[in-house]
């Protein structure tokens, strides 16, 4: 009587690709309701393409830099603009909260809804540098924001991005055509205020 053949493990067992797992995308309305219910209390979050992203805590140096830049920008973008500090922008189903956003109009213009665009967005990057160069950059470019700055605290430089364009192999299919790295001792002229010369050293700690 023949012995039963031992079960042979398939060579593909455990090697087959896992099926995609459905992920629940939430709307801006759901996101805001969750915030009202206190589900994000004690956390820094923002909505990016229907997903809630938890952000790193703000360091003292990061916060002080943002406060300093807002005060500087208030002296430059005073008439016809509002300089927002860590306020939401509504960009489709995303609601990022950039460190600085210069938006057209006044605070009274946005009592019923957050701004949907900006003439200049600034992110202050230390632990968030990779996130700001990928997710945030592509998101802002897709929204048509003409100018995006990263105040790079790690390398003590200002990264200036201009001219949003469709761009493959980016997070959201868009990027910026122009990129410039500026260091202390150099100046930058915002597109919306070309006559204003801002010393890079004023933006850095």
Name of the CATH architecture: Alpha-Beta Complex
Helix content estimate: 10-25%
Tally of individual domains: 1
Strand order of the largest sheet: 3-4-5-6-7-8
Query: Based on CA inertia axes, which overall geometry fits?
Result: globular
Rg of Cα set: 22 Å
Helix count, per DSSP?
4
The string of secondary-structure elements, in order, is HEEHEEEHEEEEEH
Rounded to the nearest angstrom, the distance between the terminal CA atoms is 84 Å
* Structural class by helix and strand composition: alpha+beta
Q: Approximately what portion of the residues adopt beta-strand conformation?
A: 25-35%
CATH class: Alpha Beta
Q: What is CATH's topology name?
A: tt1808, chain A
Mean of all residue-level pLDDT scores:
90
Report low-confidence residues grouped into runs of 5 or more: 1-14
Please count the beta strands (DSSP E, at least 2 residues each): 10
Sketch the major β-sheet: 6 strands, mixed
Entry summary:
This protein has 205 residues and is an alpha+beta fold. The chain has helices spanning 28-36, 60-76, 129-142, 200-203; strands at residues 45-48, 51-54, 81-85, 100-104, 120-125, 147-152, 157-166, 174-182, 187-188, 198-199. The chain has a single domain (58-203), classed as Alpha-Beta Complex (tt1808, chain A), CATH 3.90.1570.
């Amino acid at each position: 009587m023949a012995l039963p053949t031992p079960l042979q493990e398939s060579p593909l067992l455990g090697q087959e690709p896992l099926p995609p797992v459905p992920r629940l995308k939430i709307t801006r309305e759901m996101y805001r309701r969750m915030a009202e219910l206190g589900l994000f209390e004690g956390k820094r979050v923002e909505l990016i393409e229907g997903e809630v992203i938890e952000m790193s805590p703000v360091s003292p140096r990061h916060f002080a830099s943002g406060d300093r830049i807002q005060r500087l920008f208030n002296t430059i973008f005073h008439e016809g603009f509002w300089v927002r500090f860590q306020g939401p922008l509504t960009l489709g189903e995303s609601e990022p909260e950039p460190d600085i956003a210069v938006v057209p109009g006044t605070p009274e213009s946005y009592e019923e809804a957050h701004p949907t665009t900006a003439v200049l967005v600034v992110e202050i990057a230390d632990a968030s540098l990779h996130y700001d160069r990928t997710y945030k950059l592509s998101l802002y470019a897709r929204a048509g924001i003409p100018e995006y700055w990263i105040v790079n605290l790690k390398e003590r430089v200002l990264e200036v991005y201009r001219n949003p364009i469709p761009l493959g192999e980016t997070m959201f299919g868009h990027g910026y055509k122009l990129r410039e790295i500026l260091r202390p001792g150099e100046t930058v002229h915002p597109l919306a205020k070309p006559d204003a010369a801002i010393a890079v050293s004023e933006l850095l700690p």
